[in-house]
Amino acid sequence: MDISVVIPVMDEEESLEELYSSLKGVLDKLGKSYEIIFIDDGSKDDSFKILKNLAEKDRDVLVIRFRANFGQTAALSAGFKYAKGDIIVTLDADLQNEPEDIPKLLEKIEGGYDVVSGWRKERKDKLLTRRIPSFLANKVISRITGVYLHDYGCTLKAYRREIIKNIDLYGQMHRFIPALAKWLGASIGEVVVKHSKRKHGRSKYGLSRTITVILDLITVRFLLSFSTKPIQIFGLLGIISGAIGFVIGVLLVIQRQFFRIPLGNRPMLFLSVLLIFVGIQFISMGLLGEMQARTYHESQNKPTYVVKEIIGGGE
Ligand code: UDP
Ligand code: MG
Question: Is the pLDDT at 164 greater than 90, yes or no?
């Protein structure tokens, strides 16, 4: 199989038929084998009925139905699991992404990239609640992950199979796939894509998504830099905090012993004790983290590295 198109669907009954036929038009023209995977993420409308119809008519369509709403990230994750294509393309079901852009993404992948992300340069969403938060978010995410993209939130993306199969997704993590892929040594590209207003139904997200994204960003940053060596970060913080507390404490004791300055009424004493305690806490947390990291990798046989290829050795 050459291409798998993965589409998360939640209450998008009005858009599905149109999406399917324009997608079909684009994919048939490519002259490659493909499949279209719809994940029905607990839709309450007739989405599943429509998808089922499509799957019965067309052998290239696969429908995965969730028992309940598990979220867009889980839906994509399920799609990746079942995808058989060498290249995996994701897009939204609400017709905001254009299937006509898919060939552009594929071209870029064939040009040697492992992950190609769409960039909705002229985004047709609300300015205040969508475009401005998203502009800032993209700046911050780029800065913190070190992978500079204009549009992390665009679902229209294409991935090489080897990359995506090595990434596990939780929370709202799907938008960070390029950053996680970078850790696996992937090369990341960007392509300008079209974007339209939502024609039917409502967006499934509000402004509160910003907070989820920030929390996920912290997780990603931690995973990228310290997941295999938590003591390096927690231990460092612990040592700094403990050392400052210790120095303050020593100074106070010297003042008490040699200059007869009473110790009992000095706020600095509290600070010193607090910093030492926090330092011990941080170091213990780092040690717990180290044990967690070992459990995480060893219990699942997850290596702490990614091999690209192995040659020689008589095989
Ligand atoms: N979606 C989903 N599960 C959810 C929320 C959204 O499968 O819990 C799907 C939704 O049907 C759409 C895509 O994810 O295909 C993006 O959602 P939406 O268009 O509401 O987000 P926006 O474009 O407004 O950021
Ligand atoms: Mg949308």
Answer: yes
pLDDT of 166 > 80? The answer is yes
Q: Which atom of ligand 1 is nearest to the CA of 94?
A: 15
pLDDT of 73 over the 90 cut: yes
The residues, ordered by sequence, that sit 6+ positions from 38 with a Cβ below 8 Å of its Cβ are 7, 9, 16, 51, 54, 61, 62, 63, 64, 93
Q: List C-alpha distances in Å: 294 to 166, 206, 221, 236, 303.
A: 18, 38, 19, 20, 10
Cα distances from 291 to residues 72, 284, 285, in angstroms, run 31, 11, 10
pTM: 0.89
Name the residue of 39, 40, 50, 72 whose CB sits within 8 Å of the most ligand 1 atoms, as the mutation to test its pocket.
72
| Closest C-alpha among 307, 8, 91, 295 to residue 184 | 307
- Using DSSP's 3-state secondary structure scheme, residue 62 falls into strand
User: How many whole angstroms from 92 Cα to the centroid of ligand 2?
Assistant: 6
Residue 315, pLDDT > 70, answer no
Cα gap 102→36, rounded to integer Å: 13
How far does CA 237 lie from the centroid of its chain?
27
In contact, 51 and 16? CB cutoff 8 Å: yes
Length in residues, the chain: 315
* Ligand 1 atom 2 nearest Cα: 72
Nearest to 55, CA basis, from 13, 20, 97, 5 = 20
Distance, CA of 151 to chain centre = 13
Ligand closest in space to the Cα of 92: 1
Q: If you measure from the C-alpha of residue 205 to the centroid of ligand 2, how many angstroms do you get, rounded to a whole number? A: 9
Ligand 2 centroid vs 258 CA: distance in angstroms? 70
Per-residue pLDDT at 40: 97
